[in-house]
Amino acid sequence: MTKLTRLLTTVATAAALGAFGMAAQAQEDCPRGDLDERFCDRDGDLIADIPTDPAQWVDPDTLIFAYTPVEDPAVYKEAWADFLTHLEAETGKDVVFFPVQSNAAQIEAMRSGRLHISGFNTGSNPLAVNCAGFRPFTMMAAPDGSFGYEMELITYPGSGIEAVEDIKGGQLAFTSPTSNSGFKAPSAILKADYDMLPERDFEPVFSGKHDNSILGVANKDYPAAAVANSVMGRMMERGVVSGDQVVSLYKSQTFPTTGYGLVYNLAPELQEKIQNAFFSFDWEGTSLEEEFGKNGEGQFLPITYQEYWDVIRKIDAANDVSYACE
């Protein structure tokens, strides 16, 4: 080997080691935990950091808002109308309500940059955080600060199902695989507390939404279903179903409800304005109070994903749920 060859080899080796070192340093500078490789979490709060490079910030003229697809989107477009007017005034932007049809479509819309502000349901929050760069910062609560809902296993009178164990051998309706109360929590509870598994002990079916499951039980299309009782309560308040059409078999611990937030790469000043819009909104006499007051909700409560979704992440871990983006 000539001196020149040795020199070139040494330089190439040093360059390779230098590149490796830079990549390792970059990795150290961008810890991400379960987050997708597009995001960083330098402060350790489990959500994507706002980009440090202003060139990566997004500041659109029109903001797109979506509410979680648990019930008829038309009902909720009207319910959110007064809040979205307030949001426009606070941000100086036009705001458009985007009626999503599924949790997967909602997550993909944010991941692809077509959704800026959203409420993701309890179970899909972790996937939205890790795959779409969702930064939740608030959820609805009662004026006294209480919040949340329970998962209930329900049936209808005369179904022959008197206890959870009686579901064996029949159907159990879930909503979607990303739903906490509609799938993940009941799956974990049935496995841990009742040694009951789908396919082996009962036939799982998916209705798509909580209202579909509730109506399915009330109309005797499903013998049993796992649902969020907050949705069921609102449907009863509206007269869509009545209390004598449903029997509760099981009620879980209280879970956090829909988490509201925004996509990570909105300009920081705009993010601040959006957050201020939530916390400065006066609920009294509004379309939002008319709908969500049926659950006793009347304010937006500040939250952190790290603390408030801890129990949900534990349920996901028990179900071997992956946050990898597909």
From TrEMBL:
Keywords: Signal. Pfam families: Phosphonate-bd (PF12974). One of its GO terms (biological process) is transmembrane transport. Residues 1-26 form the signal peptide. GO terms for cellular component: ATP-binding cassette (ABC) transporter complex. Gene3D superfamilies: Periplasmic binding protein-like II. InterPro entries: PhnD. Belongs to the phosphate/phosphite/phosphonate binding protein family. This is Phosphonate transport system substrate-binding protein. It comes from Rhodovulum bhavnagarense. The lineage of its organism: Bacteria, Pseudomonadati, Pseudomonadota, Alphaproteobacteria, Rhodobacterales.
